[in-house]
Amino acid sequence: EKGGYDYFMLKEIAEQPKAVADTLLGRIDAVGSLTLDEVRISAAELREVDKVVIVACGTAFHAGMIAKYAIEHWTRIPCEVELASEFRYRDPILGPRSLVIAISQSGETMDTLMALRHAREQGSKVLAICNTNGSTIPRESDAVLYTHAGPEVAVASTKAFLTQLVACYLVALYLGQVRGTKWGDEISAVIRDLSHISGEVERVLETMEPVRELARSLADKNTVLFLGRHVGYPVALEGALKLKELAYMHAEGFAAGELKHGPIALIEEDLPVVVVVPSPRGRSVIHDKIVSNIQEIRARGARTIVIAEEGDEAVVPYADHLIRIPATPTLLQPLVATVPLQVFACELATARGNEVDQPRNLAKSVTVE
Ligand code: F6R
């Protein structure tokens, strides 16, 4: 049932192009508009939404962090993202015009369930983004967008994450479409790019051998740091989470702009630092700032592992290891940038002799608070 792979995680990483395509299936019509009939919250209600609040845990929370960038950019609706376990205990400000989005692969995560119950008690509408048909979270929500990734067996979430991202982009674009923002043309262009993204994920998967080799060479390290900026920041957090749970290594993700506010003190000779570089085309200012960051940490001895778009030559002089990803619209980059980090963590775990599908102390769904 592992389809020839040694681990479910490897199988699920490989299934991502199909999973991503399945999430999009039937949701983009012939003229390139979104048809999200499943979202049983009327267009009139969606036009009234004055705040979006996303609640989730772990990897799903990282998807939510990325969704915030997309929702605020394409819809201009303020969006908050909060760890479900923190949410209801701080007496959050919610009302009938708040749209709460609960993201959960299993649909059974107790923290997320309690957060959505709290939101509904305040009169807010709840939209679930979920991978498990008929599970508790979608049953208790006003509407659900299923991710259609197929069953995810490995404890570490991979294909569920990519499809959560796709679902989040769909919601963001749909909200933009329903409300009509000045980004109409960009929204149509991104919908077109999304429909090709499965092929781009496939291309990344075909180039992963050097990443595996690199991972094996780092098996005796104690620490790996991850840096990113804009949507690359949650990708860095996700890369670090994967490494913690699978390789049992000390791994931390930082917003690259925070380096000089503390973390740069951690840099020492030969410390591996993975840097997720934003597109040089889109927000070129942050691209240039990240290139300076890479320069700074390398000057202090870090071993730089740089994930950058094809054609981005500015990073070449400062990259000890360069991992290329296809060019995508700025906001969609996490769909291709996360894949090498999944492969990296999986290979490091194997090299360290760890049980990839069943990491110690973890359960696939956390049904206690
Ligand atoms: C990490 C991982 C966990 C889950 C988290 C939420 O690889 O799998 O961090 O993402 O426990 O689970 P769901 O999405 O089922 O609510």
TrEMBL record:
- Example GO BP: protein N-linked glycosylation
Give any GO molecular function from the UniProt entry: glutamine-fructose-6-phosphate transaminase (isomerizing) activity
Q: Which UniProt keywords apply?
A: Aminotransferase, Cytoplasm, Glutamine amidotransferase, Repeat, Transferase
Where in the cell is the protein located? Cytoplasm
* GO terms for cellular component: cytosol
**Its Enzyme Commission number?**
2.6.1.16
Catalytically driven reaction(s) = D-fructose 6-phosphate + L-glutamine = D-glucosamine 6-phosphate + L-glutamate
Residue ranges of domain SIS in the record:
42-181, 214-359
Broad EC category? transferase
Give the positions the UniProt entry annotates as the active site. Answer: 364
According to the record's subunit comment, the protein's assembly and interactions are: Homodimer.
* Chain's role: Catalyzes the first step in hexosamine metabolism, converting fructose-6P into glucosamine-6P using glutamine as a nitrogen source.
- Return the protein name: Glutamine--fructose-6-phosphate aminotransferase [isomerizing]
What is the organism of origin for this protein? Answer: Streptomyces sviceus (strain ATCC 29083 / DSM 924 / JCM 4929 / NBRC 13980 / NCIMB 11184 / NRRL 5439 / UC 5370)
Shown portion of the complete protein runs from: 247 to 615 of 615
